Amino acid sequence: MSGNHDHSGEHHPEPLSYAEARTKAIESLLIEKGLLSTDAIDARVQAYEQDIGPLNGARVVARAWTDDEYRKRLLKDGTSAIGEMGFFGAQGAEIVVLENTPDVHNVVVCTLCSCYPWPVLGLPPRWYKSDAYRARAVIEPRAVLKEFGLNLDESVEVRVWDSNSDIRYMVLPERPDGTDDLCEDDLVKLVTRDSMIGVAKVKSTAAAM
Ligand code: FE
What's the 73 CA to ligand 1 centre distance in angstroms? Predict the structure, then answer.
């Protein structure tokens, strides 16, 4: 699919875009010709919604926290470092990973629709696709983050990244204090979807309880 901002496969309350209408037309034609079953399509949607979800992203983050060479590769070329872990596919042609630090907080939005790195985060949450989030994340990011329960110090620089169909962003959140003893598998369990969009921080087990 070409075009600088195609919306294929994403959900919209608005009338169908050209790309969506085309996708639907192709889909029904393939089903009619017996080349594709609705079950196969449903299975694929379910894979993105439930099986992939944000777990792949959490694995990437935990690896970056525990392997500094991997972290460097991830920040330099997100797509290939993510591919190293076996995660790639639709909506993941170019993934750029942004590192949060004590001084810089990155947050991701798609102002035009809902572009999102499917291979690492699955399908976007409903709020990510809302008009309110898409508009306000750019205009008043600190206020939006506050509503998510994230109060950043004024000294922290907030950077907002607008995803599109060519580049999709994922945040590498800060590793929380008090997790030095945790192994990679334990760290995976701490990493939330919201922390990889940049609207939350990762909490240590103690803080989360
Ligand atoms: Fe989009």
Answer: 26
Task: Identify whether 183 is a catalytic site residue.
Answer: no
Active-site entry in 17, 37, 80, 115: 115
CA 34 to centroid of ligand 1, rounded, Å: 31
Name the token pair of 35. 């080349």
Q: Which residues contact 120 (CB under 8 A, 6 or more apart)?
A: 54, 56, 57, 60, 82, 87, 92, 95, 170, 196
**CA angle 172-177-182, nearest 5°?**
85
Name residue, tokens 């972290």: 71
User: pLDDT, tens digit, for every residue of 99-123?
Assistant: 999 999 999 999 999 999 999 999 8
Predicted TM-score of the model (pTM): 0.77
Give residue 24's pLDDT.
77
Q: Exposed, middle or buried by CB within 10 Å (0-12, 13-18, 19+), for 190?
A: buried
CA of 116 to the centre of ligand 1 (A): 7
